[in-house]
Structure formats: C-alpha cells, structure tokens
What does this fold into?
Amino acid sequence: MILAGFALATCAGLACTAMTNVYGLIAMRMLQALGGATGVAIGRAIIRDMFDRERSAQMISIVASAMAIAPMISPLIGGLIETFFGWKAIFLFAATLSFIVFIWTWRTLPETRSRDSELVARTKFFATVASLVKNPRFVGYILSAALGSGAFFIYVGAGPHVIITMMGRSSAEYGLWFIPTAGGYIIGNMITSRIAMRIGLEWSILWGNVINMAGALAGIALLPWIDALGPLVVVIPAAVMGIGNGVILPNAIAGAVSIRPQVAGTASGSLGFTQMSFGALTTQFAGHLVASTSGAAPMVYAMLAVGVACLLVYVFLLRPSRIAGRGTG
It folds into this structure.
C-alpha cells in the first residue's frame, strides 16, 4: 500500500508541472494527496502491528510531533522555492521527496502485517468497516480524534478573518501567530509520550479534554480584553487546545487501531477519513461564521462548542467505568 501510494504521489507531483490550466492542476493535486495519505494511514497501522495498545499511543505521539513540524516550515520552504525557482519547482521538490520515501520503503521496511490480518483481509471491506462502526468504543475514539482537532480547524477557517481583516494585521504576522498552535500540539504529544504508558489511553484522553476545556474557557474569559490583547484572545485558547489535541489524538488513534488489530489499516483509514471530513466542514463553517461579524466571540464560542462535544463523547462512550462495564471485546 505504501509503495503504491508514494508511486502515485510521485507521478502526480510530476504531472502537476505539465498542467496548463487550474482544473488539471487541482485534479493532479488530489491524486498527489490520495497517494501521500497512505503514509499517514498505513504508518499508524504499522505502529500498531509492532507495539501493544499503550505503547502504540506513545509511539504515535512521537511520530505526530515530527509531523507537526511540517505545517510550521513548509510555507517558508515553499515560498523560498517559488521565489527562486518558480511554482513548478515546488511540485518537483514534492515529487522528489515522495520518490525518496518510495525507495526507502522498498529497501528497508519489512511487511508487518500478521498472518491473522491476511486472513481477515480477505473479507469484504464494507463488512469490516460496518463491524468497526457497530463498536461504541471505536465510534468514541474516532469522534474524539475529530472533535479534539476541532479547535485547530476553527482557527484555520476563522483565524485569518479575525486577525487579518478585523484586527488589521498582515498575513505574515498571522503566519507567526499560527506557530503557537502548532507548538501547543507538539507539547501535547510530548506529554502523551510521557503519560500514556502510566495512566492508559482513556485517562489520557480525559486529561486532554480537561486541557481542551481550560483553553476554551480561557478564551471566553479573555474576550473583554480584546482591545488590549489583540490576537492573543484567539491565539491563547487555540494554543492551549492544541496541547489538548496533542494529548487526545495519539491516544484516540491507538485506541481505534486496537479495537481489531487484524484490520488496523482499515481502522486507521476510517479514522483519518472522519477526522479530515469533519475538519473540512468545520473550516468552511468557521469561515462563514465570522464573515459577517465584527468580533472574535463567535470563533471562541465555536471552540468551546467542539470542546464540550468532545468531552461528552468521552463521558458517554469512553470513560473507563463504561468500558469495564461492557468488556474489552
């Protein structure tokens, strides 16, 4: 799967440079994303193949910390490449990286899927997904991953309008204000790497929710001082909730791919699909939410809403007493 995915990403990246209109470019970009997504989905499944449930959360948090660096530096790298070599060089650069990963995987990565997984894989895909969705714990994990990331997607959708349009800051300054959110996510993953093995997945997710709520409530408390604090009114809650997301997400992923380890790849892909679909809808909703307003309150209250929803998912589907009551099967 990884070899096929990165072969597609490499070819699509090269094809981007040959496109003569925006529609062809968008189509090739979609194929490039389709290929690159295999690295995220299958990478998580490989971790579950190699480690037990709690250890998987620790390893996923380390990988997620490294992945969080990409959004922080990629705009700068892309801008420099475009400035000195033109826009086509960006896609040549991406295609080259995809090809390097393809060769690296081919030469060094062994197959981690077990014989049991091979037997299960012969069943129908939709039947496997249906069996996962019928499990309340799996639903709880994927909803925690989606809602835990909600504050980030709201910030992506509404942040530019609030900081640039309403507060009159430059786009370059907005880029700097984006760093604390990514930094908070990295800190959250570092916390997970320390606590997941000690207190377990469900308790870690609870603490992530507590941090999420603290960030959202801090944003509400800071709203009266928006004239004095400026962008900090939205950056502080986004950064704190980024820490909460960094705690919730690795543990939710590890929990989801542990429900049926034989189909960890399917579980990981389903979680990623749900998370990104929710993110796409949330980003659009947040942008429309603040488009006709003159303050940051709608953005902050939207962050609070997704924080409350994530906490409710934990209470009704994931809290340890409920899990113990229904068993671990």
User: Anything to note?
Assistant: The first helix runs from residue 2 to 16. Residues 324-329 have pLDDT under 50 and may be disordered.
